[in-house]
Amino acid sequence: MRRRIFRALAHLALHHYVAVLAVSVLLTAGAVVIGGMRGKFATNLSSLLPPGAKYCEGLRTVVGHFGSLDILLCVLEADRKEDIDDAKPLVEKFAERLAAHDDMIERVQYKVGQEQEKFIREQLAGKGYLYLDEEDFPQIEEKLSPEGMRKQLDLAMSVFRGDAAVFRQRVLPDPLNFLEVFDRHISKMGGNFRTKDAERYITSSDGRMLVVSIKAKGVAQDLEFDHRLMKMVRKDAEEVFGKAHERFDVGFTGSFAIAVQDDMTLRSDILYTFGISLAAVLALFALAFKRFGMVFYVGTPLAMSVVWTLGLAFTVFGRISIISGGFAAILVGLGIDFAIHTYNRYVEERRVTDSLEEAVENAIVKSGEGIFFGAVTTSIAFFGVTITEFSGLKELGFLAGAGVLLGMAAMLLVLPALLVAREKIGRTKLGKPEIYSFGLPYLSSFVQKHAAAAASVLFGLGAVAVAVVLLTITTEMFDSEFANLKPKHDPVMELQKRVMDGLNWNVDKAMVFTVAPTFEEALEAAAEVRGNVYGLEKEGELTGHTSLVDYIPTRKNQERVLEFLGRYDFAKVKEQFRAVAGEAGFNPKGFRDFYMRLDELAEFLEKPEFITLETLEQGGLETVARGFTTATDDAIKIDDLRYRTGHIVVTYIQPKRMEGGGLSSAWYKDVEKRLGARPGGLAAMTSVRQVGYELRDIVYDDFALITLLVFLGVWVCLLVTFSGSLRALRRPLTILIMAVLVPLLMLAGGIPFSVINVTIVAGGVFMGTLMLLGRPLRALVALLPIATGIFWMVAVMMLAEKFMPGSGFKFNYINVIVLPAIIGIGIDSGIHLVHRYAEDGEVGPSVELTGRALMMTSLTTMLGFGSLIISRYRGIKSLGMVASLGVFACLVASLVGLTALLHWLGRYIVREREVNTDGGVPEAAGAPGTEAEKER
């Protein structure tokens, strides 16, 4: 059956090569068109979050109901404070220009509380007093007493003598300086920014940085909007600041600027790494076979398969993400392996026969099964990743798995068709290739001479690595920082860090949202949350917050204020003030505006109106209100047990800043617990960092199960592919093993990464390979290279991070895919070497012949992954580093460790003429390519 399929493929390449090439070109063109029409690059990780996870859902709730939390910052930096002071009028002009783009800009802020201060002033004679709280009552009582009035007027007299203009503007309307009381409330409304600037401009503590905060109407995930926004803002900045750039630098940072920068970086990195990997593997191919002219014939189907995969990505997902961005280089490194096998077999067949048809058919039929086996086992490893809840890794696993299969199809169809066209058009016959030995004869001699020492040292180090990894690995080996996936020296990110340092501002804010059936209940719960926030701020755990309660006091608080103010007869207060003012030497008639405000307050107390959402909307703070509260009919999940609908109120808090890293997961859990549930409404907390920790735990749990699935899938593939597989499937032992493995596999889904999982994996794979190879020792030996290589890889990573922190060898959301990938790529190394030794009974042929294929495929795979090291994205770079390390470790463990062990103890492990129970056929004859396999 399998041979008939491969003969059909050969028939297509031979007799319909024009059609094959035409269809492949059309598919490539179609993929390019799809990429041009639908292709997007998702650099924002929020679109990759898994559904159902607590903090991920919380973040979706906030973003979904309150719109984007993204902002754009325009930053002016200068060496002298005076230059920044001179730029302030230009900043006002720039803000006016931006506000005119009301189709894209929602709000522009360059002063702390500029909208809020205007709102308070307009409401001062009436509702503005409702912002007072019990902490303000003693101060108000003092100001309304005769002694307090006299004290305030004495201060006013000193101001009058110093500056008449200030007296008219500030003292006459507010002689008792009530604004002093309200300043505390105004500053609370200032949002994330705090400033010491007298004019309330958002400036750094040293006064040499000025910031304009821009709230756009779009979201940072919309890259088309991001590019239009940045183009418009940069144009306005250039026109407004003009030559003033010579005195200060103008830069942009924040979510929108970062998204545009990431988009351009990701696009260039994909092309760059793909080009480097393609050139590198083709150069190695040409050097190994000494045929530089064949680069075109091998490179064309290789590039086509990558373009097809790219078209598939845009068709299925509509995007390439920051996590799946390295797939192209991976496919090049894996796809060239198929080309090596196909081309090598074709040239050998062409040398012994003049028949083109016979050469092509034999090449495809004889190499096709091995190529198919390699493609399926590798794709199983990548497809296994798709069971994870993390969308980013799911996409990468799907693309890599599908890309491997498309690469196989290209090498079994397009490459033979090109070779047929080459000979039929050019009438060129190929000779036998001369392949480099890679020094394997010398290695074979060394291994046989020092077998015991080499095997003992290498596998002894492997045992040490196993002990170190199992006993010391923790979640700290996983880097959950999203920022560490991005370029290290990114000017936009570096500017954001300077802004954070200059303003003492933490961009990693957390959101605490309360849900209740009514708005008042949700607001009351938010007020209680804010009370706890104050306590955390005093302890230094938080550096600031913004709350809707700062804009809309709770009904209970407003009622307390009305009760307090109701104790005063403001007609008597006015008469008392006239008397005190006359005694202080002022003309009492000059305070008409103040008397009018007192009369308005008296009238308000007779018919009080509470501050509500409508008050904010009428006062010009509608957009502010929309950022804090909304009504919803959706079921909002607060914890694992309860759901609430109605109204949501969100409070934004600023965690303390930590030097050299972020706050721990335990810190967030403690803060969340202290904010906790509140009477009248439920409170939940979420943040980008909490999402990161949650994803870390999800990835750890998922990849324990993924590893088991990959091993099981490869095991089944081996059973079906190798000799005796169908007979093995009928054995009672097979049924027993499946009955044990499947429940263990189901249980593993809830078991975190631990010694238990590793034991399950090792046991399952050992039993599977035992069935394949027939004896326990043979199974164990065949698995040693891949197991040893993986543990070496992890141990080296741990040592690198211990002695070189920040070296990039920590596991993260991107490079964690290496664990199942290495299994799929390297699992067959030990099996092929053991089979070859069982067939020949000598180590020499195993190293020199089988080892040559392993060396070639390992080097090309390392080149494919290794090209990712030049990526500017640290996450993709780390994928290249870790994968190359893993492939190299498995190669050394196979060619040196396993062959040394076979030479030393092979006669006890594999018997040369061993007869199996099914009719006297040597088990070694089951290896692909033997006479038994050919006859079958």
Helix content: 55-70%
Total strand segments: 11
Q: Given the C-alpha coordinates, what overall shape results? A: elongated
- State mean pLDDT (0 to 100 scale): 76
- Count of helical stretches: 34
In percent, how much strand structure appears in the residues? 5-15%
Describe what this molecule looks like in 3D.
With about 950 residues, the protein is an alpha+beta fold. Helix content is about 65%, strand content about 5%. Helix 2 (about 15-40) runs antiparallel to helix 15, helix 13 (about 325-350) crosses helix 32 and helix 17 crosses helix 33 (about 875-910). It is elongated, with a radius of gyration of 36 Å. Residues about 720-740, about 745-760 and about 910-935 have low confidence and may be disordered.
In short:
This protein has 936 residues and is α+β, with helices and mostly antiparallel strands. Helix content is 65%, strand content 7%.
